[in-house]
Amino acid sequence: MVDIHHHLLPGLDDGASNMDVAVEMARLAVAEGITHVVCTPHANSYHAFDPRVNAAKADELRARLAAEKIDLTLGLGCDFHLSLDNVELALADPARYSINGLGYLLVEAPNYGLPPGLSETFYRLRLAGMTPVLTHPERNATLQQDPERLIEWLRAGLLVQVTADSLTGHKGRRAQQVARQLLDRRWVHFLATDAHNTTTRPPRMRAAYELVGKRYGAAYAYSLCVSNPQAAYMGRPFEIEGQPRGLEEVVKTPTWWQRMTAALMRK
Ligand SMILES: [Fe+2]
């Protein structure tokens, strides 16, 4: 499996607190069946994001993993907060925050509320050559209330990542229900761990993979955990597995009364 959302780099954000913890997280990831991890430090008002620092940390961690014989390939990306400054920086340099600099951009849905003007932001990111991937909408209070708000963005090509732990119930009942609703509609394109440590938020993906396989079929599970994230890792397009439901425009046929009123108005 390929995990595109993982706070593995040590000492940068609220993820791995030091190199030893990062090594243990990597060990757990491999035991889950993960072969590739995209290291995605936060870029928000609490955590500065510096691509050179991240690259150096990733090299340091790769050397430790090689020394410990832990077979895990590391890529680089970002857990991108949708602030005005961040968006402007991403538009000016699309490689800066996207996965391996190749275009897929994780955009963080805050746990509470949604910033205004998101449709336009997604549109501008796409115009600049990026493919925004909305992270864990099932954990956002506004989208939990009203998942239909995703429809407009999905129609415009937004991709969706659900946290594996949400599906298996580790993020609470509501997140689990919404995650399942999103999968029922085939509105999800990636599962990822969003791992932060070895205890409360460890890298877990296998149980979610198996659950999706049982409930939705092996092909959808494979696309969410292997082929789609692999394509994102390589910066390649992919075919969406399964027909998303409920995205068609509803064209209403006017009633006889509306037709008659319209005819009278034209006279
Ligand atoms: Fe995250």
Characterise this structure.
By secondary structure, this protein is an alpha/beta fold. The protein has a single domain, classed as TIM Barrel, CATH 3.20.20.140. It is 43% helix and 13% strand. The protein has eleven helices and nine strands. The strands form two sheets. It has a six-stranded parallel beta sheet. The protein has a three-stranded parallel beta sheet with strand order 1-2-4. Helix 1 links the parallel strand 1 and strand 2. Helix 9 crosses helix 10. The longest helix has 17 residues. The radius of gyration is 20 Å and the shape is globular. The protein starts with a strand and ends with a helix. The relative contact order is 0.14. Fe (ii) ion (FE2) binds next to loops.
Instruction: Report the CATH C-level class.
Output: Alpha Beta
Reported by name, the CATH topology is TIM Barrel
**Which class best fits the helix and strand makeup?**
alpha/beta
What coarse outline follows from CA principal-axis ratios? globular
Q: Taking all residues together, what is the mean pLDDT?
A: 94
Query: What is the helix content?
Result: 40-55%
List the ligand species: fe (ii) ion
The major sheet is characterized as: 6 strands, parallel
Q: Please give the domain count.
A: 1
What string gives the helices and strands in order?
Answer: EHEEHEEHEHEHHEHHEHHH
Q: Compute the CA-based radius of gyration.
A: 20 Å
> Strands across the major sheet, in which order?
3-5-6-7-8-9
Oligomer: single chain
- Unreliable spans are none
Alpha plus pi helix count: 11
